[in-house]
Specification:
By secondary structure, the chain is α/β, with parallel strands linked by helices. The chain folds into two domains: about 5-230, Rossmann fold; about 240-454, no CATH class. It contains 19 helices and 15 strands. The strands form five sheets. The protein has a five-stranded parallel β-sheet with strand order 4-7-8-1-9. It has a three-stranded mixed β-sheet with strand order 10-11-12.
Amino acid sequence: MQRSVKAEIRHNLLTRLRSGEPRFPGIVGFDDTVLPHLERALLAGHDLVLLGERGQGKTRLIRTLGGLLDEWTPVVTGCEINDHPYAPVCVRCRRLAADTGDELPVSWKHRDERYGEKLATPDTSVGDLIGDVDPIKVAEGRTLGDPETVHYGLVPRTNRGIFSINELPDLAERIQVSLLNVLEERDVQIRGYALRLPLDVLLVASANPEDYTNRGRIITPLKDRFGAEIRTHYPLALDTELALIRQEADFADLGGVPAEVPEHLVEVIARFTRLVRESNAVDARSGVSARFALAAAETVAAGAVRRAALAGEDHAVARVCDLPAVVPTLMGKVEFEVSEEGREQEVLEHLLRRATAETYRRTLGTADLSGLLDKFDSGELVESGELVGAAELLRRIGQVRGLAKIMERLEMTGDSPGQAAAALEFALEGLFLSRRLSKDVSEGRADGTATYRT
C-alpha cells in the first residue's frame, strides 16, 4: 500500500495514542504542554517550527519523529530520492520502470535512513539543500539539458521522509526562498531545468526566539507556509529537572570506575540550575540550557572519580566538596547581564549555596543531628576536602550516633564508606549554612579544603 509520509505518521501516531504506547521516547517534561500541540500538528499534516531557547530539547524532540514512520518501506533500488516502486517520479526511475516493468528492482529502507538533518549555517547554499548541476555527469557526455545531470540536495534526497533544519534563522534569507516551493507546491526548482519533482516530505525546523532579531530571521513568506509554530520550554517543576538529569547525565562508569552521585547532590544541581535561570543577574533572553545541569552532574562525578583514584578507592561517591568545582566549569554556559560584569563567579557561588541550603532544609532540616553536633562540643574540628578519601573522612569524624537515620533521610540505601562520608559531609555543610557550625575555607588552594568547627 502506498501512502504519503504525513499519512504514514498520522496512522502510526493514532495507533500509539489508542494503545497508550510512548509516542516520543526520552522526552521529559513536555507531556502536558508541548506534545499535545505537536500531536495536533502531525495529525493535521502540518510542517512545523519548534521555537524555544537553547537547550530545551528541540533537536532531541525532532529526532524522535522518525520513530513514527513505518519500520521498512520499499524504494526503487539505486534511486537518489527514494522513489516508491508504484509511483516513480524522477527521470531515471520512470525510464527504468518503463524498460523493466514488473522486474523493476526494489530495495527496503529502514525508517532510521529516512530522516535527514541540516544545521543552518551562513555558508549553506541552495545547492546543498535543493541541488545543482553535477559537472562530473556533464563531463561524462550528458548534455546540460538532460535532467539526469542534476545532483540532488539534502531535501530531495530525504524524499518520502522527514527533513529537519536546525537554527533556521541562521539560514541566509535568499536561501530560505528556495524552500518556499518545497513547503507549498511540494516541488523543487534547480537552475534552469523545467523539473517538476513532486516531493513527499515532512519539513521540521527549530529556531531560537531571539534569532528573529539578532542573528537573523525567518522570512515572512516562509513562516506563513509552516502549518504550526510550537513553543518549547525549560522544565517547569523540580521533579522534571531531576528526571532529566538522571536520564541524560553520563556518569555511571568513568574510566572503569563506578561513579555514584547521591540523590541529594542531584537535587542540589537541579535547584542550582533553576535558581540560575530565575536570577536577575542572568540574561533571561539567552536562557540556561539543560546542558548546564548535565555538565554540572558530570563534573561532580568526575571529581569523585579523581578523588577515588588518588585515595586508592574502588568506588567513587560524590560529596559536597565536589560541588564548588562546577562554578568555573559552567561560567561559560551563562550569559550575565552587563551590570554583573566581574561578579559572575560570586553570583554562581551564592546561588550554589542557596541550592545546597534548600536541599538541606528539605532532607535534613528536621532531622536529629545532635549525634554529629556532639563531636564539636569539646572544641574539636573536622577537616575535609575533595582530596580527602571517604575512609579518611570517616576516621576524622569518628562514630556518629544516628548516622543510619541521616542516610535514610537522604535516600542512601547502601552501607559503603563513600555513602556514609557523603551523608555526613552534606550534614556538616547544612549545619554550616544554617549557622550551627562555622567553616574555614583555605584560600589559594584548588583542593577545596574546608575545616568545620563550632
